[in-house]
TrEMBL record:
<keyword id="KW-0812">Transmembrane</keyword>
<dbReference type="InterPro" id="IPR009339">
    <property type="entry name" value="DUF998"/>
</dbReference>
<dbReference type="Pfam" id="PF06197">
    <property type="entry name" value="DUF998"/>
</dbReference>
<feature type="transmembrane region" description="Helical">
    <location>
        <begin position="148"/>
        <end position="165"/>
    </location>
</feature>
<feature type="transmembrane region" description="Helical">
    <location>
        <begin position="121"/>
        <end position="142"/>
    </location>
</feature>
<feature type="transmembrane region" description="Helical">
    <location>
        <begin position="177"/>
        <end position="198"/>
    </location>
</feature>
<feature type="transmembrane region" description="Helical">
    <location>
        <begin position="46"/>
        <end position="66"/>
    </location>
</feature>
<keyword id="KW-1133">Transmembrane helix</keyword>
<feature type="transmembrane region" description="Helical">
    <location>
        <begin position="6"/>
        <end position="25"/>
    </location>
</feature>
<keyword id="KW-0472">Membrane</keyword>
<protein>
    <recommendedName>
        <fullName>DUF998 domain-containing protein</fullName>
    </recommendedName>
</protein>
<feature type="transmembrane region" description="Helical">
    <location>
        <begin position="72"/>
        <end position="92"/>
    </location>
</feature>
Length: 199
C-alpha cells in the first residue's frame, strides 16, 4: 500500500511539472490565457493526453490505499473520482478554440463536439472533487497543521474555481493563469497528503 501512496504523490507532482514545462515551451501556446486542457491539442497534444491519463491512473491507484492509511473511505472515494475524471479528460480532449492550436479562429466554435462536451463533464468532476477532498481532509487528517492546510487548500481551490469559471465564460486574457492557481494549489496539496500517508 505504501507504494501506491507514493505513486499517487508522484502522479500529482509530475502532472504539474509536465504541463508547466510543456506549456512554456509549446509554440503558439500562451499559458496565461490558454487552459491546460488545450495542451492536449496539436502535434504535441499526445504529451498532455498522456499526462492526463497516466497522472489520473497514478492518483486513482493512490486513492485505493488512502482509506487504510488515513482511516477514511470517503476521502479515498473522492480522490478516486478526481483521478478517474483526469483520465477521462485525456481520453476526451477539448475542441480547438480561442486561437489554439495556431491557426484556430479566435472565439468559440458555433457548436461543440460530443468529445468536447464529455471533456467538460470530466472537468466538472475534476474541479468539484478536489475542493471536496480538501474539505473532507479537514475532518479526517490528524493534527492541527494538517487540518489548517486542508482548510486553506479548500478555500483557495473554491475561490479560484469560481474565478476560473467567470474567466472562461468571458474569455479573460488571464484564464490560464487563474486555472493554474487552482491546479498547482490542489495537486501539490494532494501529493503532499499522499506522501504524508505513505510515511
Amino acid at each position: 500500500m505504501t507504494g501506491l501512496l507514493w505513486l499517487g504523490a508522484l502522479g500529482s507532482w509530475l502532472f504539474v511539472v509536465t504541463f508547466l514545462i510543456d506549456g512554456w515551451t509549446r509554440p503558439g501556446y500562451r499559458p496565461v490565457r490558454h487552459p491546460v486542457s488545450a495542451l492536449a491539442l496539436g502535434d504535441r497534444g499526445w504529451v498532455q493526453k498522456t499526462n492526463f491519463i497516466v497522472g489520473g491512473l497514478a492518483i486513482t491507484a493512490g486513492a485505493a490505499a488512502l482509506p487504510g492509511a488515513v482511516d477514511s473511505v470517503l476521502l479515498g472515494v473522492v480522490v478516486a473520482v478526481f483521478g478517474l475524471a483526469l483520465v477521462a479528460s485525456g481520453v476526451y480532449p477539448m475542441d480547438p478554440m480561442r486561437g489554439y492550436p495556431p491557426g484556430t479562429p479566435e472565439g468559440d466554435p458555433p457548436r461543440f463536439s460530443e468529445t468536447h462536451e464529455r471533456h467538460d463533464w470530466a472537468g466538472f468532476a475534476v474541479f468539484g472533487a478536489l475542493p471536496v477532498a480538501a474539505l473532507v481532509a479537514v475532518f479526517v487528517l490528524p493534527g492541527t497543521g494538517w487540518k489548517v492546510y486542508a482548510a486553506l487548500t479548500a478555500l483557495v481551490t473554491v475561490v479560484s474555481m469560481a474565478r476560473f469559471s467567470q474567466a472562461w465564460e468571458s474569455d479573460d486574457p488571464r484564464t490560464g493563469l487563474i486555472q493554474r492557481v487552482f491546479i498547482v494549489t490542489g495537486w501539490l496539496w494532494l501529493g503532499i497528503v499522499f506522501a504524508h500517508a505513505a510515511r
